Amino acid sequence: MTKARAGSFQTAHGGVLTPAFMPVGTQGTVKGITPTQLRAIGPQVILGNTYHLGLRPGDELVASLGGLHKFMGWEGPILTDSGGFQVFSLAGMRKISEAGVAFQSHIDGSPHFLSPERAMEIQANLGSDIVMALDECPPGQMERGALELSMARTTRWLKRCRDFPLAPHQGLFAINQGGTHLDLRRDHLHQILELDAAAPFQGFAVGGLSVGEPKELMNATLAEFVEELPVNRARYLMGVGTPEDLLFGIEQGVDLFDCVLPSREARHGRLLTSRGRINIKNARHRAADLPLDPACDCYTCRTFSRAYLHHLLRAGELLAFTLNTIHNLSYTVGLTRAARLALLDGRFPAFASSARENWNTEEP
Amino acid sequence: MTKARAGSFQTAHGGVLTPAFMPVGTQGTVKGITPTQLRAIGPQVILGNTYHLGLRPGDELVASLGGLHKFMGWEGPILTDSGGFQVFSLAGMRKISEAGVAFQSHIDGSPHFLSPERAMEIQANLGSDIVMALDECPPGQMERGALELSMARTTRWLKRCRDFPLAPHQGLFAINQGGTHLDLRRDHLHQILELDAAAPFQGFAVGGLSVGEPKELMNATLAEFVEELPVNRARYLMGVGTPEDLLFGIEQGVDLFDCVLPSREARHGRLLTSRGRINIKNARHRAADLPLDPACDCYTCRTFSRAYLHHLLRAGELLAFTLNTIHNLSYTVGLTRAARLALLDGRFPAFASSARENWNTEEP
């Protein structure tokens, strides 16, 4: 009996069918991809980034131009993160207090302040469908006592986020922390659910995993914890996106995922296929007159040979980034779509084991 | 009475309606643009580059993969240059003799030899529709005596090119030289036409202009000389591509143009519009909620605001290169298409003066 689930929920910009991998469009664009190409890839939701867009071009400017959907030409659902992860990553350039995080822009060093209210304000201005609460993002191996203090602050910040008047069409997700400590995760979830009882969140995110802790600990945490999240709300595992991790997450009952990895790896020529990973720059692909992945129906695989993709990347051509990204995103979005169909058809366990088996097959 | 003309000729990959601007796809890709996007831009012909493709990925490899059309996913006509212009530009890394040009690869310094026969062999392997003869490419201000010697060699090379067995579907263009000396151009054309009498060339190119000479001299040469080219064959002005130069060339009776400028300028944010040039990076476009060119129906202008394009380029996003290139190529290809329609409708002079007038209008 699998814990995996096929679900759906509604947003002002369309329904979301899950499980779903959400491509990342940090600066108002999925790197190298037009909205038309993105529609063909078919993600249910894409991400925008509060930190980056708040600094440049500025959330007020985006609002004055009709919001992020119109600005970037994407009519589907958009989730915006809170900016917290980026701000907490600015080591040496930020100062945390109960009020929020003072930080310097990575662009020009100018001073800024990200509070729960400001994170909500930016996301309100961007007009995203799914809004993430601002949380403290503790490092992967934070000491237990410090983690408890951090979680308590995240809860207080969550309350402040919830009190901010978002637009009627926007839904707020709460973020659960607690590292790989199951009891802390449960404590924190309990705190979140107390707030939820008053006014329900649209979904629940599992944060603070895939941040440097051993993979076994992450997986053990997910295996125990995901099923404890409310069954009737969306579950979002943040920052996870390898095929193996997606499949494992789906098996634990996760609905939503995001990660920059598939697109970043694509730009370096590291491509995902139904037969396992490929580095398209390798000499063995120089004259290969076959598609990247014969099982894939993305534009790249339908149109070009591996030899062409090899040539483009070797020659440093811009088109390499576009075509490789189209494929890796199609592969990753397609994996979650296929998982959904398998779930609806009652053949998910067979699908999962077949997928894993193919990844371990050497190419002929 | 204008010398401008609307013409057409056939290739194995479709008819070519002229006047036509041909976008440059140096390394088997128009930089940053998929074949699907290219089709929407609608060029009659695109260029491939013999020098670059011969070195990487290699013309034999392209042939083994079915030719350049299949390799790059472009079903329309392709013109390949001879590689001469690039090889002659390798100052200090090439040595010219009657046999051909010995040169070192810009990629790895390896030694190569480009002869008329090798230039034909590469283009035969690439399988382009229009093949350019190998010519000596003299610098813009070459002394008259040296120019005469160079032209004579170009004629001998042309004969060797013509003797090479191309594929049946391929047509050979001869290249006329002579700098801005009308009498030399005429002498050289006379030599070419002697060869043409035995076996006709598909077209005639005007080479050696737009290579550093004063614009007035180039224009004066074109104004006198273009009409002396055979009326029933395609006329190709090489390396020319600003709106002003295209219009002037069309007015002199030129049919085909190519230039990297529209796409290169696009990548730097210097964009062509019906109201004149725009630098999209300028602060005045930061919040501009209007299309790049309201008179343009390209994907970029239909979909995005100037503010978005400004943001993308400021943020260094790959999509900026793609969207800006789509626009500048659409603009440039569209200018030659509009000129053709105006010619067919008998309103070309009005079209030309209206185009010039709009370029000089300041934006409101």
Highest CATH level, the class of the largest domain in chain A: Alpha Beta
Instruction: Tell me the β content of chain A.
Output: 15-25%
The CATH architecture of the largest domain in chain A comes to Alpha-Beta Barrel
Chain-averaged pLDDT of chain A = 96
Cα-based radius of gyration of chain A, to the nearest Å:
20 Å
Number of helices of chain A: 15
Q: What composes the largest sheet of chain A? A: 9 strands, parallel
Largest interface (C-beta under 8 Å)? A-B, 40 and 40 residues
The helical percent of chain A reads 40-55%
Strand order of the largest sheet of chain A: 3-14-13-12-11-10-6-5-4
Tally of strands of chain A: 16
From the structure provided, what is the oligomeric state, counting identical versus distinct chains?
homodimer
Instruction: List low-pLDDT spans of chain A.
Output: none
CATH homologous superfamily placement of the largest domain in chain A? Queuine tRNA-ribosyltransferase-like
CATH topology of the largest domain in chain A: TIM Barrel
Features:
3-stranded antiparallel sheet, globular, 15 helices, 364 residues, 9-stranded parallel sheet, alpha/beta, TIM Barrel, 43% helix, homodimer
Please give a structural write-up.
Two copies of one chain form a homodimer. The two termini of chain A are 35 Å apart. Chain A has 364 residues and is an alpha/beta fold. Chain A has helices at residues 35-41, 50-55, 59-64, 68-72, 84-88, 116-126, 144-163, 182-198, 215-225, 243-252, 261-267, 299-303, 306-314, 318-344, 348-359; strands at residues 7-11, 14-18, 20-22, 24-25, 46-48, 78-80, 94-96, 101-104, 111-114, 130-132, 171-176, 203-206, 234-237, 256-258, 270-273, 276-279. Chain A has a nine-stranded parallel sheet with strand order 3-14-13-12-11-10-6-5-4. Chain A has 15 helices and 16 strands. The first copy, chain A, has two domains: 7-259, TIM Barrel (Alpha-Beta Barrel), CATH 3.20.20.105; 267-359, no CATH class. Chain A is globular and about 60 Å long.
